[in-house]
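job 3f2a | input accepted
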Amino acid sequence: MNATPSRWSVVWRQAPLLVALVVLWLFLWDEITVVSVITGIGLAILVTRVLYLPPVLLSGRFNPWRGLLLGLRMIVDVITASLQVAWRAIDPRWQPMNSIIAVQLDTHSDLVLTLTAEAISVVPGTVVVDVDRGRSVLYLHALGTRTEADVDAIRGSVLATEERILLAMGTREEAARVRSHRKRVREAKREEREGGRP
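job 3f2a | predicted structure (198 res):
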């Protein structure tokens, strides 16, 4: 059973959001003065307290190694997908076959949901067109989905991206759940290989 977070822990977890809003304000003004900093702080507090925003609570955990792997994998995915889309654009034999795919995510964190949606949309060939926040479902438009296997591959790619984000910055419980799931998948594959041996 999850304990209700205290008021101070909520404020502490939202501190990065407040700092980000102040930094954004300073970028908009293109100068750092006492007045711009004070108005930035005031507006950040006003935006987060007066306007309705779902609370963005950080896990308080970041794994630098997993964060680096996440970034490197994103670079590889973007380059690979860019080359594939560019080839399809000039290939006269290619017949467009696209799909809207619903992907049920494991997380219920607004931050992880948003980061996953952004990471998927950055990769050419896929773009998130709708989000069901209540059920943690992403709806995305994907190119080149001719078969059910293509659709399953897209779903698998989205879930793998979510797993990498959870391992990098999810809660300890979410990271442990991802590791446990990966272990079960590896064991199932090993049993399948051993079962197929004569």
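job 3f2a | The chain has a mean pLDDT of 83.
job 3f2a | closed
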